[in-house]
Amino acid sequence: MAHFLVTGGAGxxxxxxxxxxxxxxxSVRVLDNFSTGFKRNLDECRNHIELMEAxxxxxxxxxxxxxxxxxxxxQAAIPSVQRSVDDPLRSHHANETGTLNMxxxxxxxxxKRLVFxxxxxxxxxxxxxPKVESMRESxxxxxxxxxxxxxxxxxxxxxxxxxxxxxxxxxxxxxPRQDPHSPYxxxxxxxxxxxxxxxxxxxxGDGEQTRDFTYVDxxxxxxxxxxxVTDADGMAFNVGTGERHSLNDLLRAxxxxxxxxxxxxxGSARPGDVRHSQADIRSARQHLGYNPRVSFQEGLKRTVxxxxxxxxxxxx
Length: 316
What we know:
UDP-galactose 4-epimerase, domain 1; 10 helices
């Protein structure tokens, strides 16, 4: 049994990691300020974790959180490209200052490894697909820039201080418990809720933009592998499926699952959004032993099923 700290453990991805770690018999501490996460995401495991309600911008809280910890899964952040465009300073404080605080605390506590949740947005809008880790990064938003800065800090802390770090560039993660109600919510959670409620999904742009939609179980697999391997420290890896689907493809797939055609409402594209995204996952396969375990289609079915049972109002 190992002792894990999951920052942002009340969030969509963080809480999925918490449940998976508990299922494997590990000890889990969660650090979250609940600014974007929800206590309800931890309801089923509240009695089996140590919960710290604090902010990663508080260096003293970070120091307390890593005490006695073996591994840090650093998921805490202010998510969303659009949120960072609206409030870049808040994203900077949480995503850069907060990450630096966690790195310093982890270094001083001599944790075995810190795994950093980065983002495919660090690549920007590259013409070449799929996106490979050796490409030059070109972030288009404050959010993307903060994630790239977090990666660079992780690499520097490994090189200078010997802190084992691994960075995972997530590609459009989706699945149960993703919040559909915020204006900054990810597209699949919003589309699923609209489909179940009999509403028109809102598409920003023409719907031909493509994404490597990655079911959350694949991200959990990558995080666990990043803690287990020994030859990936100081490196960054894509975590996706290696495939891409347009938003219009997504609408068609959802139509099949819910059993009726979905008519979308199209609007203007959002500033800072990339046009196309697809992961090259060869390096993650080689160094992490990562392989996507759940396909886009299967993940979408599981997601619709979860929302149909947990958001009854969506079926009214």
